[in-house]
Design brief:
Elements (H helix, E strand, L loop, with lengths): L1 H9 L1 E5 L6 H17 L3 E4 L9 H11 L2 E5 L5 H12 L4 E5 L14 E3 L7 H18 L15 H37 L8 H13 L4 H9 L5 H15 L1
Parallel strand pairs: 1-2, 1-3, 3-4, 4-5
Length: 248
């Protein structure tokens, strides 16, 4: 029972938006935010959903810390929403920003990714639900992308290790790309010196594909390099598939 309760808390998506009792705001939350969040596998929660004896700011602070993802609707430039967003950023929580126009976004936050919508579009509600759901799923995969760089130092050690691993993988890919490019440049330069065309023939293409796969080069990079030297993309993809099948 306790485990189920902990999982329920863990999966909270806490929404910052005005909750001044207006029927329009409540309908907006119920018809757009709630289904979008649920479709992404999260439990939606807003400040006025919380019933308890403690002051509302205490409840907001507790759920800001507990929530897995937060959403801040900046439309209308509500001061409470900005205050709550500041709390979330300060402790390194991933926050999805939403605004009707960029004029609602403070200058310091305009460098961040913002989901925008226009009520002039007849399908704005469905489009916004789709964007929210897709973005939540993206945050679940890479939460640090939605945390301002200045606040990354406040995230947990586990998340720091995850970020370090991701950065290490990217660096390794860059190093591989660099080595691959250097090798090709040497090869091309040698060919030019001997009056040989830069285009790669079938036999050499097969040899390179085998070598690149063995060295762990990503497929898009292999395709890009060889196709730029006259090798048909279909040929490259077919050979990659064959080599991978043999390896299994």
């Amino acid at each position: 029972m306790a485990g189920a309760r902990a999982q329920k808390e863990k999966d909270i998506c806490f929404v910052y938006m005005p909750f001044n009792g207006m029927a329009e705001q409540h309908e907006y939350y119920e018809k757009i935010y709630v289904p979008a969040i649920k479709s992404a596998g999260m439990r939606p929660l807003r400040a006025d959903d919380i019933f308890g004896p403690s002051p509302i700011i205490s409840d907001i602070w507790e759920h800001t810390k507990k929530a897995k993802i937060l959403i801040a609707d900046l439309s209308g430039k509500n001061s409470n929403v900005f205050y709550e967003l500041g709390l979330a950023h300060a402790i390194g929580q991933p926050v999805i920003l939403i605004a009707e126009t960029l004029d609602d976004v403070p200058f310091d936050l305009k460098i961040l990714r913002v989901i925008r919508y226009s009520k002039n579009d007849p399908n704005w509600g469905d489009d916004l639900k789709t964007q929210i759901s897709l973005t939540i799923k993206e945050v679940l995969k890479v939460p640090n992308k939605f945390i301002p760089a200045n606040f990354l130092e406040n995230i947990s050690a586990k998340d720091k290790n995850q970020i370090a691993e991701e950065q290490g993988e990217k660096l390794l890919e860059l190093q591989k790309s660099y080595e691959m490019l250097k090798s090709e440049m040497r090869h091309n330069l040698l060919g030019l010196r001997h009056g040989v065309s830069r285009e790669v023939g079938p036999a050499e293409a097969v040899s390179r594909i085998r070598r690149y796969l063995a060295d762990g080069y990503p497929e898009p990079l292999i395709i890009e390099r060889l196709s730029s030297q006259g090798v048909p993309v279909s040929f490259i993809m077919r050979r990659i598939k064959e080599f991978k099948k043999r390896k299994k």
